[in-house]
Amino acid sequence: MTTLFDKPVLLKDAIEESRFGGKCVSLGVALRADLPVPRGYALAVDLVNALAHEDELAIATVLGLFAELAPAAAVRSSAVGEDSVDASFAGQHLSVLNVMDAESMITAIQQVHASAFTAEAIAYRAKMGVEGEPAIAVVIQQQILSEVAGVMFTKNPITHANERYIEASWGLGEAVVAGMVVPDSFRISSQGSILAQVLGDKDVELIAVAQGQTREQEVDQARQNSFCLSEDQLDRLHSLALNCEAIYGKDIDIEWAFHDGQLYLLQCRSITM
């Protein structure tokens, strides 16, 4: 019996949320607007289900994509309803970073799919009123090996002021998202001027390792005692916020990264207060 499933599509071609989930569709919108999103593919819900069940044709269909993302890929969930105004699913589903080969990418996709069925994820769905079985699509992208990364809110999530609030640290952004560090924080006005900056601890950074996956590494004292973002980088983040607001509207949560001088948009979703 042949399993029917959608073929992978370029991330910019992910349009239907019922097939590709919230994150894929949101990143597709950004790519079509020429925002700096890492290249990648959207894997539809039925394809991810087939991969989860070890379907040989599905595996063969996806294996060849790794070569276009090499030397490393990031694998993230894109559930239907994820990154919405009502339910962000932040931290509920697994992300697998620095995947170094095609077979490991298949395993990572299966792990991401399985993470939607944990007790914690199911409880979150119930709490947020998301009904039915989880429908999990997956986004696979080129891994950005960032020197500095973090999150930016276009409305201050603490005071609700109309200003940008940025948290940043050395290395991969998951150190900030997962609360592994006390990051540097910055407040920027809606016109782009720096209102305040507070030095964090930043005693560790999350780095990619040659064998795949990631590990924590101690940050030297000089970098611990220095702000990880320059005024120029803050200005570029403000410009990114303006561009994202023009597409997605106000009050958005942006994950970003700098690598070799290039600013990348990793994720954009509505702020859930």
Question: What does this molecule look like?
Answer:
The structure is a single chain. Helix content is 31%, strand content 28%. The chain is α+β, with helices and mostly antiparallel strands. It folds into 2 domains: 9-142, 2-Layer Sandwich (Dna Ligase, domain 1), CATH 3.30.1490.20; 148-270, D-amino Acid Aminotransferase, Chain A, domain 1. Strands 9-8-7-6-12-13 form a 6-stranded antiparallel beta sheet. Strands 1-2-5-3-4 form a 5-stranded antiparallel beta sheet. Strands 10-11 form a two-stranded antiparallel ribbon. The longest helix is centred in the C-terminal third of the chain and has 18 residues, at 231-248. It is globular and about 55 Å long.
What composes the largest sheet?
6 strands, antiparallel
Unreliable sequence segments = 83-88
**CATH overall fold name of the largest domain:** Dna Ligase, domain 1
Question: What is the averaged pLDDT score?
Answer: 91
Q: How many strands?
A: 13
How is the quaternary structure best described?
A: single chain
Query: Rg, please?
Result: 18 Å
What characteristic shape results from the CA principal axes? globular
The CATH architecture designation of the largest domain is 2-Layer Sandwich
- Please, how many domains? 2
The CATH H-level superfamily of the largest domain is ATP-grasp fold, A domain
Helices and strands, in order, run as EHEHHHEEHHEEEHEEEEHHEE
Biggest β-sheet: strands ordered side by side in the sheet: 9-8-7-6-12-13
Distinct helical segment count: 9
Q: Strand portion, in percent?
A: 25-35%
CATH class of the largest domain: Alpha Beta
* Distance N to C terminus: 47 Å
